[in-house]
Write a structure and sequence with these properties.
Elements: H1 14-28, H2 36-39, E1 56-60, E2 64-69, E3 74-80, E4 95-101, E5 104-110, E6 133-141, E7 146-154, E8 163-170, H3 187-192
């Protein structure tokens, strides 16, 4: 069963509804629904928070908080107690700055890519513009056994009004982070087990060294 976009959500601008209707039509005509995690693309902010298949690690340093996903070793950096830079470069995760407020880590993120074809707000292919603004409030719950994030998304180019959501994780001891290289492991799955048309995976046009 493939995911269908919530294309008729009244909070969406017409251009976003039209794009999401197109994704739904593609699914109805035999195309896999796009999933960043299965196709090895970064999930973006806040969409990457919805990747539940493999562990997520939070690392606190004096000046930064790192969120590391075992899947593909994606890393998001939150810079503590500093303002946003003036000449920031748009990126998948945006530029995140944070501070602690009554025990909560408050994270403010701007500087996103503009309408990238594989960069979505969530797992239902909701698009966004470069003007998206995300605020997250992380706090420990259940005596430290869990973590909760309250997320507020504002993007006047995509949504008629800001919206909020919540995600929770359970703290478990999985040991050291494992190596999980996404793009090297999907070719056989795609060739032998999937009969639907797939979205492309990212490929490097030049060597890293």
């Amino acid at each position: 069963m493939e995911r269908m976009s919530d294309a008729e959500n009244p909070n969406l601008k017409p251009w976003a509804q039209e794009l999401m209707r197109k994704y739904n039509q593609d699914v109805l005509h035999g195309h896999r629904a796009f999933s960043s995690q299965s196709r090895c693309w970064p999930g973006g902010t806040p969409g990457q928070l919805l990747f539940p298949a493999e562990p997520i690690y939070f690392i606190q340093t004096p000046k930064e908080v790192w969120i590391i996903w075992q899947r593909q070793q994606e890393v998001r950096r939150i810079y503590l107690d500093v303002p946003h830079s003036v000449d920031r470069k748009p990126s998948w995760f945006g530029e995140s700055v944070g501070h602690y407020e009554n025990g909560e880590l408050v994270v403010d993120t701007v500087g996103f890519l503009d309408k990238h074809e594989f960069d979505f707000v969530d797992n239902w292919r909701t698009p966004h513009t470069k003007d998206m603004h995300v605020v997250e409030r992380f706090q420990l719950i259940d005596g430290g056994r869990g973590l909760e994030a309250m997320v507020t998304v504002e993007d006047p180019g995509t949504f008629n009004q800001p919206w909020s959501g919540m995600v929770r994780w359970q703290r478990v001891n999985r040991g050291p982070i494992g190596e999980s290289i996404c793009a090297e492991n999907n070719e056989a799955f795609e060739k032998y087990f999937v009969n639907l048309k797939e979205y492309p995976m990212p490929t490097a046009k030049t060597p890293d060294f």
